[in-house]
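Tutorial, part two.
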Amino acid sequence: MITLRQFSNKPENIPAIASWYLADLGEARGKQELFTRQAPQRLKVLREHALIESVVSSNRIEGVTVDQTRIRTIVLGKSHLRSRDEEEVRGYRNALKTIHEQGAKLPVSEDTILRLHKLTKGGIGDAGQHKEKDSDIIKKYPDGTSRVRFRTVSPAKTPAYMAELIELWGQCLCERWVHPLVALAGFNLDFLCIHPFRDGNGRVSRLLLLLQLYHLGYEAGRYISIERIIEQSKDRYYETLEQSSQGWHERKHDPWPYINYLFFILKTAYREFEDRVGQLRTPKGAKTELVKSAIDSFTGEFSLSDLERACPGVSRDMIRVVLREFQGRKEVECLGRGPGALWRKRGNISKRG
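Running the prediction step on this input gives:
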């Protein structure tokens, strides 16, 4: 709420780079309906894949991982869960489905935030409850040392800070202190600085980001995993968050590094959305395109396991089929034998003919 308090003064100017991002995102939203009307049945594959990627990436950022072979079962199925991590992964799935299904009808409220947290934690322990002890953000180094990166809001003040944050969000949209996307990014920064829960703050912040995007009419997150893009750039995520949180308590922080980072994430999501929709022809073609995009994202050698991690919604057999197809066109080459063999691109992978 410190950032949204700053915005209540209605700043006359915003950084040029933020203005450029806003113009690009406005144009992307304008094209959104056109793309979503083109191939509604084919988009089902993208929605399913984005759901799986989002669940896996958002939890993996926080160190919660599960067996690769059980991902589709955990996310899309109803089978018995085997571990605490699997419960949290499915809980995030349930939270995502709630947001996707209710969209802008789900209010940004204290009840919603507590509910999302309860879902992500599998309803166990202090799920859906504000923290009861200080939970400062600690940065750990490879040599075993650590430091306090940020001192969060105390448990005693957390309920009041959260109530004010939610109130200021509504006021900011109503009175148009700043562009709504700037307000959204400011809200996200304030939420992370308040750090209202003992654990799970990052995951809830990403769920709120998606929910608030729906409120503002930006729906690329339905088809492209925003969480996966954040995971792929998580060093920049932590760097800009640290930059923008310095001086937050004293109201002397600079929110723009983090705001511009979130704009970069959204622009990347829309660019991927347009690229993938433009290349879809059949559900099978959609999965081929997902594997192609993953291969293009690798800068060096990669393995079958690397592709499985990058495409959690695509089966190993399907990945092998696609690799053989690209190998036959001499666009990739295998550097060894067996499932652990490394592969290498021989240039950008072309579209299917």
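The chain has two domains: 2-11+40-279, 283-345. In part three we will examine how such features are distributed along the chain.
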